[in-house]
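# step 3/5: fold
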Amino acid sequence: MKLVRSYNLLLGVTLCLTALLAIGSMAQSMSRYAEEPEDVWLLAFWAAFLTPLAALCLANGLGRRLAGSIWLRGGNMLAVSVIWLLVIIGKDDPFIVVAGALAVLGPLLALLFSQTRAPAEHGS
């Protein structure tokens, strides 16, 4: 379980930095909004998507008491579903497939380990 927490912490910090990079790049892209508005919209999408995913991964890594929480389980299920949907949509882009596979490991492993741990903790 310590490995899952460590991976979630590392993934959360990486996603935070990536979201900050997307937000920082958005300011530069705003000057070219008239020529290419889709660049600004794409950066806004990634910033809006990566920020809650980073928070979820940090919560998975930091919160031992939250591990069995229904809210965290629901968030992990939603994150896994959305990431796989993005991977299916972007299956032609190898970067999306690899990044999606790496990003889905955090919520998926946290979800699997919280499912297997919860009955043992409630039984004692």
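# step 4/5: annotate
The first helix runs from residue 2 to 30.
# step 5/5: archive (pending)
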